[in-house]
Amino acid sequence: MTFWTFLFLVFGFGLLIKAADILVDGAAGLAKKFKVPKVIIGLTLVAFGTSAPEGTVSIIAAVQGNADISLGNIIGSNIANIALVLGVAAIIRQLTVRRVTITKEIPLSIFAILALIFMGYDQFFQQQNVGFNNLSLGDGLMLLSFFVVFLYYIFGDLKSSQIKEEEIEKKEMANYKESYWYLSLLVLGGLAGIMVGGKLVVDQAVIIAIGFGVSEALIGLTIVALGTSLPELATAVMAARKNEDDIAIGTIMGSNIFNVFLVLGITALIKPLNFDPKLLLDAFFALFISIIFFIFLLKEKVLTRFHGSLLLFFYAAYIISLGFRETVMAFFGG
Fold it and tell me: What is the distance between the alpha carbons of residues 97 and 116, in angstroms, rounded to a whole number?
């Protein structure tokens, strides 16, 4: 472990973030060229673009045999998205949330965590006596089927609620000047940058984990999860500053759903993921913070600065507990 390890890690994170930004710009531009309304871009492409770093890191980690980083990254990212990202955004300015988001999208994100826990921990939930915990090929197919249902809901909801600004948007799309070739290069370049950046992050994270004598699961839950959540943080903070509450909340909910249903679904198809039982605590904390967030919004449909402060408190307590847990496990040789 050397100075170059940390330098490559920082460079990998930077490349991931910039590449994701380029990917979103290119994809959004293509959507405009093909006359897709902006609301579809926000609900799909922004969420997909900000989830791209998590997806790349998790898939590469799984292929390389680092399942703890793969799963820890997704679970840690979902925790960071709600407790850290929305906590910071709400402190900047309280966020008003649509009723449909509270009744449909947030419960769906909670269901995603429940599905992950149920499918991953075979020894705990399955009736038969199994000697392993993993996300199998069948689990991956099930998660992807849930993702298809999610997409069906999005486009069905859009179709049932006509967009008043549709004609204005079509005019803006028709006047969009960037060429198809330029936008396609942005998309391809963004994807390439994400792949290279993701490999750099995984490789350096494994080196750091070994160098400090800590588990790969802890690295995935903290430094990798925080790094891959930076696109969501930047998007949510900017949206809060510009009074775009739906974008701030929608991006996080969409990203968390994408992370579990799409990213882990694809990852499990490529290579089954073995679950470290220690990650069960983190999965339950992801479920806990999601439910707390849901409860905050039930009465007044507003995420206040006080709520944001509580979310940040929970996140700080969680990070401290991870360090304590790692210390205790190291002491007892766990």
Answer: 26
Residue type, position 11, single letter: F
* Tokens 């967009």 -> residue: 163
Contact 73, 281 (CB under 8 A): no
Q: Give me the pLDDT at residue 111, please.
A: 96
pLDDT tens-place string over residues 57-116: 888 888 888 878 888 889 999 999 999 999 999 999 999 888 878 888 899 999 999 999
- How much is the pTM? 0.81
Contacts 24+ apart (CB under 8 A), 178-182: 178/29, 178/33, 180/30, 180/33, 182/29
- pLDDT, tens only, 18-45: 887 887 787 777 767 776 655 566 667 7
Radius of gyration of the chain (CA): 20
Give the CATH number for residue 175.
Answer: 1.20.1420.30
Distances (CA, A) of 219 to 48, 93, 156: 24, 31, 39
Work out the end-to-end distance of the chain between its first and last CA atoms, rounded to an integer number of angstroms. Answer: 23
Three-state secondary structure call for residue 98: coil
Q: Specify the number of domains making up the chain.
A: 1
Is the CB of residue 22 less than 8 Å from the CB of residue 193? Answer: yes
